Amino acid sequence: MATNKKLGELLVEAGLVTAAQVDEALAIQKRSGKRIGEILVEAKRVTEQEVTAALSRQLSVPLYDGTGHVPDPAAVRLVPASVAWRHRLVPVSADATRLVVVVSDPLNVLALDDVQLLTGLEVSARLAAPGRIADLLRAAYGDRPSFSEDDLIDRLMSVRPGAVEPAELMQSVDDPGTDQAPIVRLVNLILADAVSHGASEIHIEPQPHRLDVRWRWDGELCWRMTPPVNAYTAIRNRLGIMADLPLAKVGEPRTGRFSVGIRLPGPGAPRADGTVAGSEPAPTGGSGSPPDGRSAQGRPERHTAQIVVRSLPTASGERLVAKIVDDRALTATPQELGLELPQLALLKEALDRRSGLILVVGLADSGRTTTLHTLASGLCRENRLVALVEDRLELKLPGVAQVICDRSTGHRLRAIESCLDHNPHTVVLAEL
């Protein structure tokens, strides 16, 4: 069981250091902010393995005893390389309900929560020395990608608020070259990473002393990264220029949009985050099309995602949310909505009726908009008129009469009445 004793006390009890050496390390800790175990290792008072053993006793976290064993590939596939390298953890085994990861810092609760949200499994930690973690990471994922978000963040630590010129910010989002400004590369990486992993939103959240980037994935907000807070203004400006946010309305809620082209890798090709395309056990869509936007021949395909950026002034700064609308929703069919066969049969029967009402309900990010757009596109034929009334334009649907109105009841009723004047066969209401 865990003990209330401090790490220094345990090391002294084990005869590895003296009390004077611990006091000296504590004095250095006050100046540098480093952990006492790290300080003692750097001073060659103890080894990484001895500190890890003491931490295991202090926190009651089992040591990883996997000498000569490589991590289970099935477990490795559950955690992207970028997440593993960023958090310095290695998935080593998994079953139907639990994932075992090896860490050097069991107190990093954010890392364990991030993996749990990403995998949906209970996460159980094992402890190993940092050097052992590095060896396991290389065995599981290969060498660390030369172009990573951590490299960018290291370079951004020297960025001053407002120091990035507009000319640098305006560089092409489609050019992944390493000669781009660090801010441009980081924003491009955030966008490409989110789109390729199926996130529906990106949240840029300034806090009093930090900057958080989170995804909305499968309905849940997941922590993604923490860029240096002094780069916030440059990141906001980059997204503001891309989305053409009104400069005259700084300090007020603003809305803008832009599109990005994302080239999804074919099977066996490395992604930007270090994972290998085609290695996931992801199912194909209901129509038998390959996942991740790949062609039937496995070639990489380029597709477009619409990014709708909205700002919200807060006490800590302007909060940004970028909603990702994948253009693949235009070609989706009801069979690809994830419904079971009995539900699909009921839906088809309802859609074939000459009159009636279908309600699409669900929580935020449950797929309501995608479902409505899919149904509206599917009903659109040469001999039919389909009208879609929504309070904001998320995605342009060819052949569908999309009417934009504000949230006020009177305006919405007038928009519906105007639609009915055109005798549509189907009216789709995004909000009731």
Short account of what is shown:
The protein has helices at 7-13, 19-32, 36-42, 48-59, 73-76, 81-87, 109-119, 130-141, 149-156, 166-169, 182-196, 232-243, 341-352, 368-379, 409-421, and strands at 89-94, 98-103, 122-127, 201-206, 211-217, 220-225, 255-264, 301-314, 317-326, 386-390, 401-404, 426-429. It is of the alpha/beta class and 432 residues long. The chain has a 6-stranded antiparallel sheet. Strands 1-2-3 form a 3-stranded mixed sheet.
Descriptive account of the structure:
The chain has 432 residues and is an alpha/beta fold. It has four domains: 7-59; 73-141, GMP Synthetase, Chain A, domain 3 (2-Layer Sandwich); 149-327, Beta-Lactamase (2-Layer Sandwich), CATH 3.30.450.90; 332-429, P-loop containing nucleotide triphosphate hydrolases (Rossmann fold), CATH 3.40.50. Helix content is 35%, strand content 19%. The protein is built from 15 helices and twelve strands. It has helices at residues 7-13, 19-32, 36-42, 48-59, 73-76, 81-87, 109-119, 130-141, 149-156, 166-169, 182-196, 232-243, 341-352, 368-379, 409-421; strands spanning 89-94, 98-103, 122-127, 201-206, 211-217, 220-225, 255-264, 301-314, 317-326, 386-390, 401-404, 426-429. A six-stranded antiparallel β-sheet has the order 6-5-4-9-8-7. The radius of gyration is 26 Å and the shape is elongated.
